[in-house]
Structures are given as structure tokens and as C-alpha cells.
Amino acid sequence: MNASVAAPDREVSAGGRATSDPGLSTADAPQKATGVAAEVRDTLLGADDMAPATGQDATGQDAARQDSARQDAAHKDAARQDATELDAAHKDAARQDATELDTARLDAARLDAARLDAARLDAARLDAAQQDTARLDATEQDTARENATRQDVTGQDAASGTPAGGGAAPPTVAAAPGQTGRETRKVLAARVVAAVAGGITLFAAFPPLGWWWCAPLGIALIAGSLYGARPRRAAWLGYLSAAVFLFPALAWVRTIGDDVWLMLVGTESLFYAAMAALAALVFRLPGWPVWFGGLWVAMEWARGLVPIGGFPWARVAFSQGESLFTPYAAFGGAPLVSFAATLSGALLAHAVLVRSRAWRRAVPVGLALAVPVLTLAIPRPGDEGRSINVGVVQGNVPGRGMYALGDEPAVVLKNHANETKRLAAAVWAGKLPKPDIVVLPENSTDIDPYQDEVARQIIHDSVRDVGVPTLVGAVVAIGEEHRATRSLVWDPVTGAGAYYDKQNLVPFGEYTPFKDIVLALWERAGLVGRQSVPGDKPGDLKMGRVTVGAVNCYEVAYDDTVRRTVRAGGTPLVVQTNNASYALSNLPPQQLAMSQLRAVEHNRAVVTAATTGISAFVTPDGKVAWQTRELVADMNVVKVPVRTQETLATKVGALPEWALMVMGAAAAAVAAWRTRRRGDQVRND
Fold it and tell me: What is the pLDDT of residue 491?
């Protein structure tokens, strides 16, 4: 026991000696040990005395401990249950939070995806708009480059570099459509110069000059002035080129008055302005020379329709009376000839205006040349072995201008009757072959033979001398206030017979539109006198062994009038005309060129009889075989082939014209739609 008690007070060293507490000295160690032993003994004795009380208390303590243990266990179980329920609630809440978070993240992801798709779509639209804008920029730049003067282009080559085609590329000087930039003055001046030069060159293609190859060149210059311009600018450039072209081309109208000339040119130029505005749109499409040609045909069609019956004079086709383009008339009439010449000119413009490699520029040039050259391979109808002798009389008139018929009553009638008698004398003398029929001009009698016995007798005597049916041109009364311009068949035995009344009347010449207003403003309008009324039947007239197709003067410019006469059986065509007021102007040769075109268009010979000239005979292939001088009395007998075979143009009528017009209009509509859509995209972006 003592050893066990003493053990805490000291430790045994590894060598076997006890090491005392460092707090005690060596001398105090025996006393200290004795005191400790005594304390231990007393403690043990006290523990024995208290043993019975401790046993009783222990039982109660055990019960208390058990109760406490039970309570602790119960508390622990409750705590565990509470903890379990709390953990379950926490887990459920966590799961719900996680689900909601996942849903939120999924919604956010979907929203981000939608935004990304929208951003990509916007980016795609922006890229498309930028590409379209870039194309327009290139078009405007090309236009500005090509229309600048050659000196400017040459002087700026070094600064601008060299294009892929090997040529020099001048700097950009024009803003693309949709931008705020303006063309430089040099570019605008170049456009004006091209428009003016184009108008002058186009005029040179028409008679009396008749340089037919100038038509595509003039159109090429006009196209060059319009290419790349905005519609508004193109409109006034088109108006300018038209005015420059029409003022000299319609100079014969000055006989009536300069004011009429100015008003006519001003009105007709509006059609060219409208066409030019549409052309500015179609120039943005691939293959624009074709669409431009279709628009040109549509413009000429509209000119021949409105206002007040239209004015189809000076169509491009009428500059091609005898050219490489003329054979196209047999396939599609005058509209196809105009289209072919316009297409050729537009292809030339394309070769100059659109930048590309040299060999690519050669393609449109080759096509431009191929368009007219291809007609050399077109087979033409052959002779059918029938012919007739036609006597042509040109009696002349004493006056000039608005008073060409002179003051002497019946002078025009007497002149033509005397020339008819001279023809009869030449035939009886063997100087001329005997005619089968004789043709006199429009207005070959200035007296109504139905109402005047003297006039009727003069005509009958001259026709009886020549001895064959004669076509007389007369102005006859219709009621008390009207008249008709009539082609009247006069038989040497029975006298006046079948007739044809002119359908297409000359406004302000044969009738007065808006009569009350015009008469109040212009005294000259009173010279019209009785108002002419149009006929309503084609001009097929039986004369001897043939049925001629009568066409009166101004009508030769109208496609449908001539075509219906041919379809009715008219062959040959007979054009009676009175050009006395316009003698020595450019009208007579222009009208003769129209007759040449009609001959090829319908495979018919054309005989023209004019009061003062030009009287002529045109073969079915468009060649002038005989013609008179102007302001002289003349007559002749010509051998005229009689053809009955119809051309494709005669059979299909206006179908080619409508096809070309619809093509041009559709191209303009597509170009306008694309331009508007591009503008909407740019604004949205």
C-alpha cells in the first residue's frame, strides 16, 4: 500500500535509484514520508466507517441514474427524430430549391439560345444588306468611272491602280444609291454630254441622213448616261436625250408653228423620261441590256397610244428602213426591230460600263455585232411569179407650207388630172407599159366629187383616158359638219365605186381635240375646217385583178392598221399621202423609210403616191426601186410583184410586242421590289 502511495511522489530512474521531488530537500524526506503514511491510514479508517450509508445512497443514485438515463435516451430519441425530420425537411427544401434552380437555369439557357439565334439572324441580315450595299457601291463606282471624261480617267490612273481586266481604274467619284453622297460635277457633266451626244447620234440614224448604224451607237450613249444614276436623275437625263433627238427629228412640225413643235417634243419626251427612270432600276439586274430593250419597246408602244390617239413617229425601227436590222420586221414587226437595235446598243454600253477582264468585255461586243449580222442567215420569201403594172401619178401643188393648195379653186384636182392624161399619152405612145391600175395621192382632188359635178367630170375624163381602175384620194363631206379622207376606186366606165376611209387621223390637222378650248387659244386651229371622222374598216379594195391594201399617209406609222389591211387580203400595199405642207423637210424621207419597213414586215410590195413627193415603189425586201423628186409633177408605170405569203409578223400580230413589253415591265417591277426590300432591311438593321 505504502509503495503504491509513495509512487506518485517520486519516480524511479533508469539506474534503480529514486529521484526525489525537486521541491523537497534530502533532509526533509523521512518526516514527509511519515506524515503521508499517517494521512493514508486515517483515510482508510474513515472509509470503513462510512460504508453502510454509501450502499443505501447508491441504490437511490442508481435509480436516479436510470431515470436520468431513460430521460436522456428519450431526449436523445426525440432529438434524433427531430433531427431526422429536420434533415428530411432540409433535404426536401434543398431538392425543391435545386429543381427551381434547374428550371431557372433551363429557362435562362433557352432565353440565351433565343437571343443568340436572333443575334445570328440579325448578323446574317446585316451581312446580306452590307453585301447588297457593296454591290450597289460597285455599280455606282463603275458608272462614275466609265462616264467620266477620258482625260480625267487617264490622269487619275496612277492613283487608282489597275483593275483585273488590265485597264486603269479611275477613283470612285459617285455615291451608291441609298447613300447621302452626291456625284461630282465631272460625273454629272459626263452624263449630260453622253445624253446629248446620244440624242444627236440617234437622230443621225433617221432620214434624210439615214446612217442606220448610228441607232445602236446613240442608244449606247443614252444608256451610258443613265447607267448607275438614281431614277429621278435618270428621268431628266432621259428627257434631255429625247428632246435633243426629237427636236431635229420632228423639225417638219415647225411648218405648223414653233409653238406646236415645242409642245409636241415636250410631250413626247415625257415618255422617254419615264422609261429612263425605270431603266435606272433594271440596270441593277443581271442581263440588263435585254430588260432595257423591253422597256424601250414599251415606251414606243405607249407613245403610239396616248395622248389623243398617240404619235408613233420617230420609233427606232423607222430608222432601219434598209439595214441589217430590217429583216427582224418579218418576225416581230417594228417592235422587234426597235428591240434588236436597242439591245445591240445596250450591249455595247455594257462592254464599256461594266468592269471586267478584257475577254469578258469582248463577249457583249460580240453579241452586239451578232444581233444585226445574224439576219444575213435569215431566209427571205421568194417570188411567187405574179406581178401587175401600176401607174403612179404625182401632180404637185402650187403653194407651200400651210397654204400648199394655193388660192385657185380645183388647182390640185387639175394638176393630177393633167398628169394622169400625160401618163395615158405616154402609154399610147409606147413610152410606158400599159398599167393594170393607176394610183393618185391623198387629196389628189381638193373638190368633193360627190357634190361637185365639174370635179366629178374632170376625174372621170382622166380615168377614161388611162382606161384602167384608178385610186383617187379625196376629201368628202359627211353630213353638214364632218368630212372623211377617202381612198376612192374610180372605174373608167362606172365611175366612183368602193372606198376606204382613213382610220388614224392627224390631230390638229384633220380634227381638233378639245375643240372649244383650242379654237379659243389658237386662231390657226380654225384652218382645220370640217372635223374629220375616222373609218372603221380595213383598206382592202378590189381593183381589176388584184385587191390592193389602201393606207393613207399618217397611218403607215400604225402597226395594227397596216397589219389588218394585209390580213384582209391587200397586196400590193398602196400608200396615198399628201406631204405638200412638209415638202423638202425630213418628213417625206422618214415616211418612205416606214414604207420600206412595212414591205419587209408583211412581204408586200409598197407603192407610194404623193402630191409633191416622195412617190416611190418599194420591193418586198425593202429596197426602193424607183422614186420621184420633190415639188415636181411626175408619173411612171412600175412592175410590182404580187405576194400572198404571210410572214410570221403578219400571223402573230402584236404578240412579240406584248412579250417584250411584259418582259421589260416585269424586270422593272423586280428591280423596284429588290430595291425596296433592301432599303427596309437596312432601316431595320
Answer: 97
pLDDT value at 658 more than 70: yes
Cα separations in angstroms, 206 against 108, 255, 621:
76, 19, 19
Mean pLDDT over 135-159 rounds to: 47
| CA atoms of 308 and 451, how far apart (whole Å) | 31
Q: What is the DSSP letter of 201?
A: H
Q: Burial-class residue 30 by CB neighbours within 10 Å (0-12, 13-18, 19+).
A: exposed
pLDDT at residue 83 in the model: 72
Helices assigned H by DSSP within 429-481: 453-466
Contacts of residue 679, defined as CB under 8 A and 6 or more positions apart, other chains included, come to: 178
**Alpha carbon distances (Å) from 117 to 111, 122, 125, 143, 575:** 10, 8, 12, 39, 73
Residue matched to cell numbers 437625263: 237
Contact 405, 449 (CB under 8 A): no
* Residue appearing with cell numbers 419587209: 600
Backbone Cα Rg of the chain: 55
Q: CA 228, CA 235: separation in Å to the nearest integer?
A: 12
Catalytic residue among 146, 510, 553, 601: 553
Q: Is the dihedral of CA 448, 449, 452, 454 positive or negative?
A: positive
Between CA 513 and CA 5 the distance in angstroms is 154
Residue with more model confidence, 404 or 14 = 404
* 554 CB neighbour count, 10 Å cutoff: 25
- Which among 183, 300, 442, 657 is annotated as catalytic? 442
In this structure, are residues 550 and 445 in contact, taking their beta carbons and an 8 Å threshold?
A: no
Tell me the whole-structure pTM to 2 decimals: 0.74
User: Which H helix or E strand runs over 680?
Assistant: helix 655-684
- Decide if pLDDT at 19 tops 60: no
What SS3 class is residue 593? helix
Instruction: Express as a percent the part of the chain with pLDDT over 90.
Output: 62
> How many Cα atoms sit within 13 Å of 75 on the Cβ side?
6
Cell, residue 194: 453622253
Q: Is the dihedral of CA 484, 487, 491, 497 positive or negative?
A: negative
Question: Which is catalytic among the residues 300, 502, 555, 657?
Answer: 502
Task: Examine the residue annotation and report whether 502 is marked as an active-site residue of this protein.
Answer: yes
Helix, coil or strand: residue 111 = helix
Residue 206 has pLDDT above 60, yes or no: yes
Asked whether the beta carbons of 586 and 575 are under 8 A apart, the reply is: no
Q: Is 511 helix (H, G, I), strand (E, B) or coil?
A: strand
Please state, in angstroms and rounded to a whole number, the distance separating the CA atoms of residues 355 and 169: 9
Region 64-89 average pLDDT: 75
SS3 content of the chain, % helix, strand, coil (to 5): 60, 10, 30
- Per the CB < 8 A criterion, the answer to whether 238 and 278 are in contact is no
CA distance 489 to 266: 40
Beta bridge partners of 636: 392
Element (H, E) at 550: strand 546-552
CA angle 488, 489, 491 (to 5 degrees): 140
Q: How many residues does the chain have?
A: 685
pLDDT tens digit string along 402-452?
665 655 678 999 999 999 999 999 999 999 999 999 999 999 998 999 999
In the numeric block, the cell 491510514 is attached to 41
Specify whether 268 is catalytic. Answer: no
- Is 214 assigned a catalytic role? no
Q: Is 13 exposed, middle or buried (0-12, 13-18, 19+ CB in 10 A)?
A: exposed
Could you tell me the three cell numbers for 135?
454591290
Residue among 138, 460, 114 nearest 283 (CA): 138
Q: Determine contact, residues 607/392, Cβ cutoff 8 Å.
A: yes
* DSSP string across 520-557: HH-GGGGGG-SEE----S--EEEETTEEEEEEEGGGGG
Report the C-alpha gap between 157 and 155 in whole angstroms: 6
